Amino acid sequence: MKRYLMTPGPVPVSAEVSLREAHTLIGHRGKEFSDLFSGIEEKLSRLLDSEGKTVIFPASGTGALESLSANFTGPDTSVISVSCGVFGDRFREITTLTGARMINVDLPPGEGVRPDKVASAVKSNPDASVLLLTQNETSTGVFNHIDEIIGELPKNGRPLVLVDGVSSVGAMPCFPEKWGIDGLATASQKGLLTPPGLALIWLSERGWEAASKRKCPSYYFDLPRQKEYLYKDAPENPYTPPVSLYFALDAALDEITSDGWFAERALAARSLAAGIESLGFDLLVRDEKFRSPGLTAFSHSSGETSAILKRLKTIGVEPAGGQGKFKGNLIRMSHYHDVRWPEISLALGSLYAALGESRKQAGDFMRRAFEIWEAN
Ligand SMILES: *Cc1c(COP(=O)(O)O)cnc(C)c1O
Fold this sequence. Notes:
The protein is built from 14 helices and 15 strands. It is α/β, with parallel strands linked by helices. Helix 2 packs parallel to helix 10 (243-256). Pyridoxal-5'-phosphate (PLP) binds at residues 9, 60-62, 87, 134, 136, 138, 164, 166-167, 187, 190. Residues 9, 60-62, 87, 134, 136, 138, 164, 166-167, 187, 190 line the site of pyridoxal-5'-phosphate.
């Protein structure tokens, strides 16, 4: 049976990306690989709107977060950790392991991070040298406005801002240099529309300087060591890179850097959300400003959410369920990839079919979704 994958990672990969991934293997110490690597760096520069290069190494997103923590935190650091869900908690847990003194700021799940709350935590903890943020909280579908949060921070002596961009980069604007991010971590299998396996890290000048002054206790995750190889005339990876995934990423970046990509993702999210609400579901993120352009989380007031999810899977549509305290009571549907009206109608039609008894309460869901889609 054909299955429509709508999990928030991994995401469906296009035929172009799969074909490129199937490229004959090449050695990773030679001109052909360096050229491929340089091409990827150029496309990432365009995506992130930054001249700075991006470290790429084999790991999942968690490995990228661990690398940031290993290079910037330790028993000598105080860290402000802002969390609005499972992934904010994970970044905190990883950082706690380095021995850092943690100052925790928590938000109720489904609520976005308010800049004034972070600014006041920074002001009352002047010894904190690192601030942890999540751009897109994948467990709830909350999208945080990192630019606004950093904009509220004191201009002088502010902590290094480390951002979990694992599910945001590629699917929504993320401009680390312009916004003042110091360390950005992401991975290949979400907004970057590539199979799982690559971790990516971008650092600001201030970030590189701070990392170079510390001794990283990890050999593999040591970022200054990665930098030596990245900034060679012909860039390389210090250790064996998964070459096939580099080919795949190179092809995926062509898709993602096409004109209007971010606006199209946001439009698909709005159209889908309108349809989902008309079907009788409750969106977890109430405030539209904080709704993720990459994934939508919702439940059904009948308490039948988990049965609906099961029925969806038998139809052949596969979103993810809830995590943490939302286990069994949430559906998370991703739209990081090239979702247009055919995919939106497929998702909404399948949700309608999966409603069971609650179908009677469904409104004119296709009309509402299509009006939004068509108006743009
Ligand atoms: C998926 C995800 C992670 C973890 O990534 P893995 O690749 O599963 O290790 C971390 N943070 C966020 C926001 C995520 O969405």
